Amino acid sequence: MFCVKKIFTFDAAHNLVKYKGKCEKLHGHTYKLEIKICGELDDEEMVLDFSELSSIVKEEILAQLDHSYINNIIHQPTAEMIAKWIWDRLVNKLDSKRFKLEEVVVWETPTSCAIYFEK
Q1: 67 is catalytic
Q2: Is 113 a catalytic residue?
Q3: How many domains are contained in the chain?
Q4: pLDDT averaged over the chain?
């Protein structure tokens, strides 16, 4: 089995409504997003063309989240809940007989990320 990973970035603002601390105030991040797909190679010896993966992520995720106030989309937009929201939007688009979505990683800062995957 092979895996491919594509990395994206987007800028967005949020505040954590169920959190007591500095993150309950409105603030922003440049998020890093990693999408990992695993499966078998096709006739061109690729799991999925990177440009096709980019198109899907740009249409389904970045068009919604980039330069947005994430609270309008996700009630409690922690890195964990953002990763789950992204998974839910991509899982059916990145699922075939040959490959599937394996992991979504959302980096809120250069040293802090949340990872979502299903068994």
Answers
A1: yes
A2: no
A3: 1
A4: 96
